Amino acid sequence: MLTVDFDRLGLRPGDRVLDMGAGAGRHSFEMYRRGADVIAFDMDAEELERVRDLFVAMEQAGEVPVGAEADVKQGDALALPFADGEFDRIVAAEVLEHIHADVDAIRELIRVLRPGGTLAISVPRWLPEVVNWRLSDDYHNAEGGHIRIYTDHELIDKVTKGGRSNDGTPGDAMVFMGKDYAHGLHSPYWWIKCAVGVENDEHPLAKAYHQLLVWEIMKQPTVLKLAGKVLDPLIGKSMVLYFRKPGPVHD
Fold first, then answer.
1. CA within 20 to 30 Å of 128's CA: 150, 181, 202, 236, which one?
2. What are the tens digits of pLDDT across the range 116-151?
């Protein structure tokens, strides 16, 4: 279940890419399949081991182009262990809403992106997220859970200013390229979960809707694809913002 549009990001074979906050690796795996040189970065060592194992399995199964590389790296989003301008593309999907010092994390993302490179950031969309917070305190009070709700204007401002530091010194300015919305079918599921109890997976309505989402992900039926296209701009659970770091675009 991908959130980022890699064509819009400009991903090409051979690009060195960072998946910051990779989690279970869903975006890392797709970028690897497309021939990129991928680093899956996260704080969770156990999760990264599973990602590494699947990277190896993909290579052994011949699912990736010859020459594509992939590895994992554990660390802190506020102190990325990479050189300035090391990456051609960066994905930070559904991670900034968990980080208290989000401006510091943004500044680090921009630092390790090369001039001319592109960045995709996805976060929960404002309206669906507000509904979740209103319906359930447990949804956002869980350890490691969401600590803020972004508007598009707030996040665009933070990124285009380059992650302005606490003393007011701006970082490298970024150029906003546009936005998308994704996972419109998923918002009602989380509204149901928040209404009946976020841990109540056995509630009949939550269970039935979950089966629908599994069908969507596994089989990708045409009717649900069409429903997603209608619902994404209206109630898409995720907002995806695309940015470019000023500088020459590499061929």
1. 202
2. 999 999 999 999 999 999 999 999 887 778 999 999
What pTM does this model have?
0.93
Phi, psi of 174 (to 5 degrees): -120, 155
Q: Name residues whose C-beta falls within 8 Å of residue 106's C-beta, 6 or more positions apart in sequence.
A: 96, 158, 159, 162, 163, 171
Q: In the chain, what are the helix, strand and coil shares in percent, each to the nearest 5? A: 45, 20, 35
Mind listing the pLDDT tens digit for each residue in 175-226? Answer: 999 999 999 999 999 999 999 999 999 999 999 999 999 999 999 999 999 9
Question: E strands along 94-229, which residues?
Answer: 113-124, 175-182
In three-state secondary structure terms, 53 is helix
Coil, strand, or helix at residue 120? strand
Signed CA dihedral, 14, 20, 24, 27: sign only:
negative
Cα angle at 84 between 148 and 250, to 5 degrees? 100
Q: Give the pair of three-digit tokens for residue 22.
A: 């990779």
